[in-house]
User: What shape does this take?
Amino acid sequence: MDTTTRKRYIQLQWRTLLVLIVGYTCYYFLRKNFSAAIPAMEAALGLSKVQLGTFLTLNGIVYGVSRMVNGLLADRYSKRLLMTLGLVLSCVINLAICFSPKLNGFMNLLDGEGKATLGLVYLIGSLWVLNGYVHGMGYPPTAAMMAHWFRPSELATKQSIWNASHSIGAGLVIALCGWMLSKFGYSAWNLCFIVPAVIALFGAVLMFFTLKDDPSEYGLPPVTELDNEAPDIAAEPEEQLTGERYKRFLSKMVFRNPVIWGISIADFCVYVIRFTILEWGTSFLTQYKGFDIALAASIVAASELIGGVLGTITAGWVTDRFLQNKTLRTSALCTLGATLCFAAFWRIPQGAPWIWSAILIVASAFFIYGPQALLGVSCSQYATKRASGSANGFCGIFCYAATTISGIGFGYLADRPDMGWNAVFIVSIAFGLVGALILAAYWNAPADGYAKAEQVLREIDN
Assistant: This one.
């Protein structure tokens, strides 16, 4: 590859990465705004933790199924269009949630005290479940584009940089919602939906006009030629893996791949801890630790913007620099670190200075975002870029099935006077330890599945 082409290639790689970060940050503006609004919706609308937890659970399950469906679509159709459409639809849904109480005159959604009737509960819940499906149109196209734009040897670092969008989006929207609720009161809960939706529309426009699915749309060669690397399955033309041949390849590399199954089960455990902090953080910091909403939101925002961003980038860099791209080793160590930090947070005596709780929540987020980012990279690496969208979609079912625990399960436990938040912390810590053990079992696994892919293709062709 000549110098001019190489320079253009690298510029386009970084532009693609930046746009994907902005785009997925906007997705998180329309996903974690609900978590930030939970205390206000409890107070203003009279919703219970079980009802709110049910919304989170159903949203997560539908999101996981959607990631699987859209993972299959992302490997076959336009990734740019799929990702843009999902964000636009989410904007529409969030605006519908914002204005849903205005329909009271038509549907009897509020009682005499202004609290939600079952009609409003079902309406908001249904819209949030639908939001889960359209959000499944975001991650699979991104994972597939990353696998096409970056070499396997650098994918952990680059995808970890992109993965910071999770923390940036969640941290900013939680801080924004916390500020709005503190300034305007809990009755202004609907601002947590309309303001992020307006911001996200600009992200959708940016993605539509600037993203390309892969380097070939710019007339560039496959990414494996960037450093004149030896050709492998990753560089084969798309049309060689179609029809029955593609289905058999997908079956072997994803659905019957024991490494993908192990990653997926471990990711279930990782997401229990992640969602405990992210979905319920403002709630248990106000109700269990006694902090006000502004401080609680600031701590959760800091856990994302400081802990999450630094954690995900550090984990990717350490993996590529010191661990020979073996993402599962880094993930095992980080999962254990996150679990221990969260356990320490739980055991801090009541009345201790708030700064210790903040430090340990931020530290737990620092560690948990390592596996949260790298297990997605692992799916892309072990399934190869030909099936990266499908593998990440399959794993996503397990990730968001975790909301059965962190959503309705934890809502039920927290509402029980004989259990409360202590039970939530115990269950979350137990899942963290199980996840770390599963990942440690793959300590000596190879760094990727490209050698296996070559063997699978030979078996298919024979």
The CA atoms of residues 181 and 405 lie 28 Å apart. The domain at 13-214+242-461 is CATH 1.20.1250.20 (Growth Hormone; Chain: A;). The radius of gyration is 22 Å. Confidence is low (pLDDT under 50) at residues 229-239.
